[in-house]
Design goal:
Its cofactor is Fe(2+). It is found in: Nucleus, Nucleolus; Nucleus, Nucleoplasm. This protein has one domain: Jelly Rolls. The protein has three helices and 16 strands.
Length: about 260
Amino acid sequence: MITFIVRVLTDIPLAGAPLSRMNPDSAVHLESNIPDDELNECSDTILPSASPSMIKTYLPRTTGLILFNPTFLSFKRSTEVLSALISSLPWQCKDIKMFGKDVKEPRLTVWMGDSSASYKYSGVLLQPTPWTPLVISLKEQIEAETGARFNSVLCNYYRDGNDYMGYHSDDEKELGPNSIIASLSIGAERRFIFKAREGVKTPRNLKAGDKRSFEYKLSSGSLLVMAGATQKFWKHSIPKQRGVTGRINLTFRLINK
């Protein structure tokens, strides 16, 4: 049995019963079914055949759903995939809009997917690069693990600890409501931090602006899935981190047309 503890960075009440050796007001409920009295926006995410190895975490007041498998790929397989992706994908450093200004993305990216899966984010319209055999095989493996379907992937190459991802939500209209995003990490371990979106009320009408955040450690070969209303109520980021080497993150998505 795998046990996974989410480290809570701020002392906030979370839904569910306390985990062993944690503050009862700072526990994340890990269970296989959403309690009847907590059914709301995150309950209509369709993941009917997710593998039992995916650990479910219901976010505070059930404002989202995270599934996590820390050992989805073996160390050997992860090492092989990292080397192959670094050398084979057409990595680019794109210009994006940030606070109304053109800036260089602080990482390298490739947008890949079905021919119809164009995607606009940060003021840039991305046309998909055709699937490679390696990436589509990873997609199919993740689809089997999660029970979800994907037609595109944003590949991110963090060359070292100076490359990062700022706080954002993947809530573009192409992804639709309650989108499912599967994030595969390969290479150096990085922090993945969630923070409540300011000014967004939860289904339980909690006070807008309540401070809450928590993080995962994304080791090589780990798979994290964001589902339910996660993008509506939460932002996420990968901050700069000293002394780390290269890492690739593949975020699989379903673009709706």
